[in-house]
Amino acid sequence: MTIADWSVFSFGLIWLNLFLGSFVRQKSIAVTICRLDLGEEKMGKMSHEEFLGRLLRQNSHYAAEEFEVIGEYDGISVPLRCRCLVCGNVWDGNPDSMLRRNSRCPKCGRAAAGKTSGRSRTLTHEAFVERAADACPDIEVIGKYAGANTRLDVRCRRCGYSWDAFPVTVLRSCSCPCCTNRVAVKGVNDLATTHPEIAAEWDYGRNGELKATDVVAGSSKRVWWRCPEGHEWQAIIYRRKAGGGRCPVCAK
């Protein structure tokens, strides 16, 4: 091989090395970008719960409770069934677009861009009441619906308890705070009403303003008790309900 041939060969190797190096770097950058876009340390599929968590952080429309995911997440490129809580539209959204492009209900998106005939994006009061009746027969809407982000008054048809909640919460949870013992209602589900024998040992002096009518039997609060013999001790309320947490002195 002559010097000229060797020079040409060496020059070709240099260019080949530069080309391969550039190709590898581009692939590495592409993979890195892909990882960043998906937000995953490993190139694996997110679980349904992980996707919803990321959607809550990255999509302002989902965070504002404008729509809900009613399908099961099965991959970043697999269409996912969603329902708009503003207009009621149901569509198959692109999970990747929801995360990276802040996509929303296409019908509401067109309305916001002025591409529809000017109809309001907000449900009418009658339409929301009808939807609430279908989704939660035990919950009665007694307030005026004024949009997805405005609380309204509702009432439980079973126990009669009234409270205010976001419309989306009414449609999703369909649960009464009183019936599920999330709040104590005097004369209905409070400790003094449901377990008077336990409430009889309530130490009103040591517990201050907290009364037996302010808590439910399943509460995790640690409070003071006083037995008929005058002994005082602390115990968690739900432990008393379960048969434990009795007077340690009398139990000896």
What does this structure look like?
Helices cover 38% and strands 13% of the residues. The model is unreliable at 27-43 and 115-120 (pLDDT under 50). The chain is an alpha+beta fold and 252 residues long. A three-stranded antiparallel β-sheet has the order 1-2-3. It has a three-stranded antiparallel β-sheet with strand order 4-5-6. The longest helix is centred in the first third of the chain and has 36 residues, at 3-38. It is elongated and about 100 Å long.
Short descriptors:
alpha+beta, single chain, 3-stranded antiparallel β-sheet, elongated, 252 residues
Short description:
This protein is of the alpha+beta class and 252 residues long.
* Rounded radius of gyration (Å): 31 Å
Describe the largest sheet.
Answer: 3 strands, antiparallel
Distance from N terminus to C terminus (CA atoms, Å) equals 104 Å
Overall mean confidence score, pLDDT: 83
Low-confidence stretches: 27-43, 115-120
User: How many E-type strands?
Assistant: 8
Going by helix content, strand content and strand pairing, the class is alpha+beta
How many distinct helices?
Answer: 10
Shape: elongated
Q: How many domains comprise the coordinates? A: 4
Helix content: 25-40%
Return the string of H and E elements.
Answer: HHHEEEHHHEEEHHHEEH
Strand content: 5-15%
- The strand line-up of the biggest sheet is 1-2-3
